[in-house]
Automatic annotation (TrEMBL):
Residues 73-84 have a biased composition (Basic and acidic residues). Residues 64-84 are annotated as: Disordered. This is DNA-binding protein.
């Protein structure tokens, strides 16, 4: 199992970020993070010597914002869409 950082400011490589997110149930691959870094829509990152580094809290916030609230049935999603 991948190490889940205890420090929210920890800087992780793309591989470490993908492994830590996956360990928490947010299955994502390093390749997906790479694609999102190119096309947009991924977590913020910085470059160090040409290598992407993700701040752990930013990556976790990114994953959480893409997660829906808990539901009791699939019909709740239909009701939310029609109300919007």
């Amino acid at each position: 199992m991948a190490a889940i950082p205890g420090n929210p400011a920890a800087l992780l490589t793309r591989e470490q970020t993908a492994a830590a997110l996956t360990a928490l149930g947010y299955k994502v691959s390093p390749k997906t993070l790479s694609t999102k870094a190119t096309r947009g829509g991924g977590p913020p990152y910085s470059l160090f010597c040409g290598r992407a580094l993700y701040r752990w809290q930013d990556a976790l916030d990114w994953a959480r914002t893409r997660t829906t609230p808990p539901r009791r049935s699939t019909s709740e999603a239909d009701a939310q869409r029609s109300a919007a």
